[in-house]
Amino acid sequence: MNYAKLKFKRNDARSLYGQLVEALESAIEREDLTAGTRLPSERALAAQLKLSRTTVVNAYRELEARGLLRSHVGRGTFVCARPEPADAPFAWRGKVSAFAQLNADPALRNLHLDTMNSRLISFAAGIPAIECFPLADYRRLIEQVLRESSDAVLGLGPTEGQAPLRKAIAARAGTRPERVLILSGSQQGLDLIARCLIDAGDTVVLDRPGYVGAIQTFRAAGAKLVGWDTVRGDLDELEDLFLRYRPKLLYTNPTFQNPTGKVFSLRERRDLLRLAVRYRIPVVEDDPYRETYLDAAPPPPTLYELDEHNIVIHHSTFSKVLAPGLRLGWLAASEYVVDQLALIKQRENLFTEGLSQLVVAEFMRSGLFDEHLAKLRREHARRRDRMSASLAEHLPAKFLTHARPKGGLYFWCRLGHGLKGRQLLQQATAAGVVFANGEIFYADEAGAHELRLCFASQTPDRIEEGIKRLAASLKSGHERDAPREESLMPMV
Amino acid sequence: MNYAKLKFKRNDARSLYGQLVEALESAIEREDLTAGTRLPSERALAAQLKLSRTTVVNAYRELEARGLLRSHVGRGTFVCARPEPADAPFAWRGKVSAFAQLNADPALRNLHLDTMNSRLISFAAGIPAIECFPLADYRRLIEQVLRESSDAVLGLGPTEGQAPLRKAIAARAGTRPERVLILSGSQQGLDLIARCLIDAGDTVVLDRPGYVGAIQTFRAAGAKLVGWDTVRGDLDELEDLFLRYRPKLLYTNPTFQNPTGKVFSLRERRDLLRLAVRYRIPVVEDDPYRETYLDAAPPPPTLYELDEHNIVIHHSTFSKVLAPGLRLGWLAASEYVVDQLALIKQRENLFTEGLSQLVVAEFMRSGLFDEHLAKLRREHARRRDRMSASLAEHLPAKFLTHARPKGGLYFWCRLGHGLKGRQLLQQATAAGVVFANGEIFYADEAGAHELRLCFASQTPDRIEEGIKRLAASLKSGHERDAPREESLMPMV
Questions:
Q1: Domain for residue A452, yes or no?
Q2: Chain-centroid distance, C-alpha B264
Q3: High-pLDDT (> 70) share of chain B, %
Q4: What is the CATH number of the domain that holds A37?
Q5: In a mutagenesis test of the A interface, which of B148, B338, B347 is the best target, namely the one with the most A β-carbons within 10 Å?
């Protein structure tokens, strides 16, 4: 476009700046200036048109404010759109922040949507046996709490959590109530930790494979994610990662690890802690499955209990042992960390709803929680055994291999024949069964041939039916898409 | 320190790198190198010591990983601490992120802590008359929901909210359920909006004075805050701010504004919207007080209802009309915005606890909510009148002036005699009454002589008693700290 053609009337009622805005706007309208065109610098245009530089600066700013121009520092000012008609709906897309753009991954939500779809048998999300939920006790305790403590339920509550629940959790976790922070679900804990400790560009070392919610949270915080193979559990490898990346924190799930089921031995725990202390790397111990041991004695002590340096943030939830709908999680850490996290929590949702906190506190205090856990373990063991038997019956090892978990909620499986979990998931969904495909547990591109089955959330009959459906879609997929021989080999 | 004195054994079992680490560590230990000392560049030290540059780089890295050195891009590498003994507690302070450092303001939490302190008569936090809460109905509906929908209560819930509540809110707000997002308290909405739309350095224009939670949230997101005097409500001024700052959004509370009580007229609403559309500035309409009108007919329609361009995010809560303990808020916006916010909400706490959602939905559907609102308005009017009368009786205008609010929960007051709200608050707290001092409603340094009294949360007798205590501390403060005549003048 030839800017020299623009004419200005110095004795017009309209300001020069207004005339320039109008002239540029109609040039964009007529597409004399098309999207992407770089405008002259303010100084150059001012010189060419014999206007003051301020006039041009103000005109560019107004056009920017109206979304027609966009300036990029060091690159100049560009035409970015034609003016929209006055009644066009607002273009929200251009308004989204860098953080929100990192948040566009709906993997977790989709997992949940599938699980809420009653047409499907879901082995996808990690949910305990809801049939064991002590509904009658729960209703009775709600009545009791509303009768005795309605002020605490209806009024403002402390951001750190209701005192009786902090006390009950502290007693169980071997710490003091001031070191416990109640969370509106354990996902909130991950988010708070990320907001408290991670600046964009920081590195986080985490289990590989590991919990999808942690991967998403730390990624959304702009962290660089570096996986550590938890099953191999090689501490030299971890030390190399510490040295090479100087990470801001280590995130790990050392007890019935999600998705692999791995349990760190006491010795591995001590070695890991020693390393973390040596390199001053905070450890986030995600520990939702501690109470879900199925066979033998309880697992070794938590990293938090073994820690003598306040370097561990212990993090857990009632979602895997009571019900995810309660939205109750908690963490234990040094008082300084609890205080910092509480300040951020206040900004997220002020405080956690009080009724369920007080009910669960009473549930723990009265011993009902321990009774419930014993019952839940028996039912989970039954379901695990049924899934194990169903898998053995319907899915020979050439199709799918797995280890029998000793706790947690999952079978972590590897597909044979080079089959891919994501393809299988499509076929399986059509056949009425869903699971979690392996990719979502990796921050990199791995996991194509793995998958996770939650054994705890379905009744034994539904488990049998679901595994049958899975086997049928797996076999039909195998027949239809049989891969060539060479690509089979690495999958054995 | 004289680095040339460092000696290295080339045929030692220890690596050169290990020897350098040890030498520097003991120099720091002995305080030959003190905290803040700048080390030579890696290249310079390598040349001086005749080591390879890689050796020096690796040594610096290890010492950094162990927290003894800190490097700043472009400035060099500095000694940051002496090595701590192996059993010293972990130094969390140095690990906190830039975001967390912006979150260190405990104003809102302190306001709440004061309100939870039963020794104090609190006019501080904005809470409705909890005595009006329909506890019997609420208990009955909890029973009903647990009987009829325990799966929805215990299982995973949709991030966007329970369908019956989205439907009930949409009907009331004049929109469609897909455009409603349920929030775990309205504070969550502000946080989600900030995370979705604000990058650090963006400008937000907001009411001045305005809601403390919004100020804190946008500040914590790294936004530059620019106040607009909502009471004057000058649209030319707002246009100047749009032009000058090109803000990312406008946050306003146009109906019974917190803290001033201002209600925008229909015409002001239309003008404001026209301006926002012209400059393409998204509008966050915070609207928690709409149903709290006390005298005349309901207030004019919401900006959201008047908006024809999808430019408004409407945002509200049940905390100001039912009870803050429920932790239930909601927003209405275009489907694209709801979707973006839901993805971030999923990262914050997956979904909102379901029981209270379903109970409130049934409460709205059955008509009980409207009955409750009518009752609440009558009680609030009674409390407002009582506070108005108490203020008139105990605090003559030379001490404190105020306007009688027509809705909302607050008296916005100005102190006479140059008295400062923050000083008064100290005296008042000692006398057993608290309020919100004016400064917290300003993003800049103003508000020293203003204060906000919530009239809704205390019974009429407690209001009378609280105002008496306030008057006593105000008068005693005035006698003790009477300022000189010239500083009195501007406060009249």
A1: yes
A2: 23
A3: 92
A4: 1.10.10.10
A5: B347
